[in-house]
Amino acid sequence: MKKIILTAISLCLFTIGTGFAQEKENSEKEFDRWQMRLRGVGVIPHNRADIGVIGGNIDVSNNFIPELDFTYFFTKNIAAELILGTTKHSVEANKTAVGDLDLGSVYLLPPTLMIQYHLQAGEVFKPYVGVGANYTVFYNEKSGVANGITYDNAFGYGFQIGFDIDLSDKFFINLDFKKLFLETDVTVDASNLNGGAALNIPAKVKLDPMLLGFGLGMRF
């Protein structure tokens, strides 16, 4: 009898354990954990600067770029999105003590990580909000009329709001708005404009771009 009872208990425990494992497996299969999007993004800097020595302000051009992002869902509502893209901007110092100066161009590589909350509003329309941080790398600088120019790489932060509209179980379209807050220290070597004598012009530049994106996504 004791063996029968122990065997029955063991079978019950095994059945319960198998049930929990199956429930967990089914729960994990309820939704796809990964999303990938390809967007076209308009990058619109909201720039201003504090320029030493010659004063004035700075003008950084807009651009339109392709952007790739990957999203991982920890739950149906909480996700992390990694955003990848690079952009080129023309730079000009204007209304300085020596007039307007062409400062060439610079590329920005700002990988950004957002933590998102996805609202399950319906079967098709899926809005979300996010906050996060980025680290911007400035590269391939062209100095324009100056002898040289350097940009300090910098951390920034931002927020986003957007929504997905399902086309099928796997594919969807996406509309996304981001605002990044980014500041960098810039040094312009203007010795060639000063008769060869050393002249380094410092500037603290706020870029604070808006990013307006539209694209196609896939779940997997």
TrEMBL record:
Keyword Cell inner membrane among record annotations: no
Residue ranges the record marks as coiled coil: none
Keyword Signal: yes
GO cellular component: outer membrane
Cross-referenced InterPro entries: OMP/PagP_B-barrel, OMPW
Signal peptide: 1-21
GO biological-process terms attached to the record: transmembrane transport
Keywords per UniProt: Signal
One Pfam family hit: OmpW
Name of the protein in question: Outer membrane protein
Gene source species: Myroides guanonis
